[in-house]
Design brief:
It is built from seven helices and six strands; from the N terminus they run ββαβααββααβαα. The chain is of the alpha/beta class and 175 residues long. Helix 1 packs antiparallel against helix 4 and helix 6 packs across helix 7. The longest helix has 16 residues. The protein is globular.
């Protein structure tokens, strides 16, 4: 995806797996709601006038093609926030056209995480802020082996699917 800045909020060390062009900031402590709010706050500090899209790490099937139409310049006009619902009731992406620490905290702090209603609770908060919301496609996030198999079947040529096949093959061999 074309982007002015690519920011990875990471808990751990950067490895050779990180492609060039990414800026890395350490993930903050606290619950998931606090860490997500802090990620938007970091993005707002590093690029104060730029939109930010936070994508969960448990959606390996997400690629530029999936985002291209929803985030195209023609579809961004007038949009304040982007919401990407997950099939299990959560969310896999949240974008803010004008992220600020204050807005991120209002949207995310205290949001119940990892429940079947998490996504709806976030959507309700976006609506309560009177934000024009752009919808991203519903995708499956990987929480279980069943989810992993489903995602691998959706993107069988991807690295995730290859890795899962390798793990399952090794498991069958060592049985």
């Amino acid at each position: 995806m074309p982007a002015g800045r690519r920011l990875l909020v990471l808990d751990g060390a950067v490895g050779a797996w990180l492609p060039p062009g990414w800026q890395v900031v350490p993930q903050s402590g606290g619950g998931l709601d606090e860490r997500l709010a802090a990620a938007f706050a970091a993005a707002a500090v590093l690029a104060p006038d730029a939109p930010a899209l936070l994508v969960g790490m448990d959606t390996p099937q997400v690629d530029a093609a999936l985002l291209a139409e929803s985030l195209s310049p023609a579809r961004r006009t007038g949009v304040d926030a982007w919401y990407g619902p997950a099939g299990d009731g959560g969310f896999w992406a949240l974008g803010l056209a004008r992220p600020t620490e204050r807005l991120a905290r209002r949207l995310l702090l205290g949001l119940p995480m990892s429940t079947p209603d998490t996504g709806q609770a976030l959507l309700d908060r976006l609506v309560a802020e009177n934000l024009m919301i752009g919808r991203l496609p519903v995708v499956t996030d990987v929480d279980t082996i069943r989810d992993a198999r489903h995602v691998a079947a959706e993107a069988p040529a991807g690295r995730f699917a290859a890795c899962l096949r390798s793990i399952e093959t090794d498991r069958e061999v060592t049985g």
